[in-house]
Amino acid sequence: VPKKDPMGMDYLPVYEGEDDSDGGLKISAEKIQKMGVKAEAAELRLLDRIGVASDVLGIDNQLALNTAEPLRLAAVDRIRRSIDNGFGVVAWAPTPMLECGIINGYDDGDGVFFVEACGGGGPADPLKYENLGRSDVPMLSCQFPLARIDVPEEKTIRSSLAVGVAEWNYPFHIAPDYASGRKGFENLIAALRDGEVNPFGLSYILAVYHDARQNLAQYLAWVNGRPGFEGKLETALAHFRKTADLFGEMARIVPFDPSGASFQPAMRPQLAALAEEAKSLEESAFTDIARIIG
């Protein structure tokens, strides 16, 4: 029985080494990665760690496709059906902020979804059906929860810490053009020292990094009190609390501003020094976490 894609259509099986003289399609590993398979796998693992089975629809820059509209309409329908079954849907950019949020209701009369912004900010303005996938970064990305099983807490925690260590050491998270972890820090510092700086991009990165470090510190504080980890993460926790403060200071120097007007070249030396201090602290924190999880 052919596997179904997120839209309910059959996949055509293609096997490595299979003769394609019949006109069958083969896709290289490089092209698969560019098509977002790595992103989809990462999203599946994200909820899998807490025992939530899910299905992912991810189409980068789908507006360039000839079939963009039927794909988008099918996604709208599937979101509505998921909500009818009691499951909200994680979606890309359902609010003006370009981050994921949760679609948890809809109104066919007004043709809108009800959404929660990322970061626990509470309800946001409704999203019109016609605007799904049409943000400034046009990507149709939805994650549909299917079922949940119990996973031992210690296993979940250990897995999450291992992912953190791996991401710190890996040069990019999804696409090679966007560095993460240690490499992301190196690129940021190099740009601040003497490279090209996009003022809006910098203000966005600093705001996101600040928020992420605050959440990491909060999570590590919780883990530090859980069975099997009691008191073991004191050093890493202290380092992430400090990096949260450092990025908070950087974000105050260059407040988030879509116009980019908050950045001035004279800020470069101070920002670079703060970023270097944060990188050193996180290097030490992840070394300590790697030691703890073995």
Global shape: globular
Largest sheet: 6 strands, antiparallel
The ordered H/E elements are: HHEHEEEEEHHHHH
Distance between the termini: 42 Å
Number of contiguous helices:
8
- Strand tally: 6
Mean pLDDT metric: 84
Strand order of the largest sheet: 1-6-2-3-4-5
- Amount of beta strand: 5-15%
Gist?
With 294 residues, this protein is of the alpha+beta class.
Q: How would you characterize this protein structure?
A:
This protein has helices at residues 29-34, 37-48, 68-84, 153-169, 181-194, 199-223, 234-253, 268-293; strands spanning 52-60, 89-92, 100-107, 112-116, 127-128, 139-148. With 294 residues, the protein is of the alpha+beta class. Strands 1-6-2-3-4-5 form a 6-stranded antiparallel sheet, with helices on both faces. The chain is globular. The model is unreliable at 1-37 (pLDDT under 50).
